[in-house]
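Per your request, structure below.
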């Protein structure tokens, strides 16, 4: 199987490429702005092509690659709240317009596409468990620009379904729930306060001596080890029996649901056990700020996100297995081993 991955150097892209090369006989091609996360993989015989470039400017090359592959795993996008609050237009242009372009190339070339939706499409949906085909997708008012990311992804989901219905596009959609692990974000991101929560907390413990909790850290999320998540994604790509065709799958770990404050306390405890971080972690304190002070007036949050993973277990045989303390420890250990 020939896999083409726009956004191959990102967190998900680099991990899924590594897994494909190590565990399958598939080949990989990709494009991204940088190659920092995949440098060690480029010499592999089954890494067919890498182009360092911008998908905004590479239409002809993208079309050629899509024509030559079997599956497109379109991972190019923005997934950091700090960016879609500050750059909502860029968020829409990349997450929607550029991915729509790729989907249309897949339709033209009769290729299967696997698209990353987001747990954010569920928005303010109520209920204890989020179901792929049943939960309502509820977003906030227009002035809360954080929802442009959710809406861009939701509209892509709907258009992909429509192309499946009218043009027989072969597709699968997956919704990541707070995947965590090595290469999630860089410390440069965290220094600028644009990293996602676990990387930001690790950096803040080491370099600031404190973790700042927005609105007391009462929001709850479900955290998933990247290794478990990639197993689920590989099952979608493999598509045994065609069970992934035309389906949306949550990929998350409902057993790892906790508040952000609970996350901070657990992470600090795990870092105390790592010699390189033990001293700073023992001294680190928790502080509070408001969402307006931290993000500005255009931010709005949801209280909880718990995925149902019954569907992916039933159709593809996947379920998560890594407890939250283990994934926090392994992520912190990676940072200790790879500190600049």
């Amino acid at each position: 199987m020939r896999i083409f991955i726009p956004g191959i150097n990102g967190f998900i892209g680099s991990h899924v490429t590594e897994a494909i090369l190590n565990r399958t006989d598939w080949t990989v091609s990709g494009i991204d702005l940088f190659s920092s996360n995949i440098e060690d993989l480029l010499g592999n015989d089954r890494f067919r092509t890498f182009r360092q470039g911008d998908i905004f400017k590479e239409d002809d090359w993208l079309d050629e690659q899509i024509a030559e592959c079997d599956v497109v795993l379109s991972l190019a996008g923005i997934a950091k709240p700090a960016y879609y609050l500050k750059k909502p237009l860029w968020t829409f242009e990349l997450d929607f317009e550029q991915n729509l372009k790729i989907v249309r190339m897949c339709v033209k070339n009769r290729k299967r596409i696997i698209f990353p939706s987001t747990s954010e499409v569920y928005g303010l949906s109520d209920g204890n468990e989020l179901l792929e085909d049943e939960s309502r997708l509820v977003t906030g008012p227009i002035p809360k620009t954080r929802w442009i990311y959710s809406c861009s992804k939701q509209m892509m989901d709907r258009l992909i379904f429509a192309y499946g219905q009218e043009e027989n596009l072969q597709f699968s959609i997956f919704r990541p729930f707070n995947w965590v692990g090595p290469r999630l974000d860089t410390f440069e991101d965290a220094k600028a306060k644009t990293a996602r929560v676990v990387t930001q907390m690790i950096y803040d413990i080491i370099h600031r001596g404190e973790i700042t909790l927005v609105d007391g850290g009462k929001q709850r999320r479900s955290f998933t080890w990247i290794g478990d998540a990639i197993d689920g994604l590989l099952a979608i790509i493999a598509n045994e029996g065609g069970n992934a065709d035309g389906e949306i799958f949550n990929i998350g770990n409902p057993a790892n649901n906790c508040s952000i404050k609970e996350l901070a306390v657990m992470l600090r405890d795990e870092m105390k056990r790592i010699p390189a971080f033990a001293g700073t972690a023992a001294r680190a304190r928790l502080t509070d700020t408001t969402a307006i002070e931290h993000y500005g007036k255009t931010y709005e949050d949801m209280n909880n996100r718990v995925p149902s993973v019954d569907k992916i277990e039933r159709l593809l045989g996947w379920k998560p297995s890594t407890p939250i303390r283990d994934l926090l420890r392994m992520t912190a250990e990676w940072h200790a081993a790879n500190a600049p």
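The chain has a mean pLDDT of 96.

Regards,
D.
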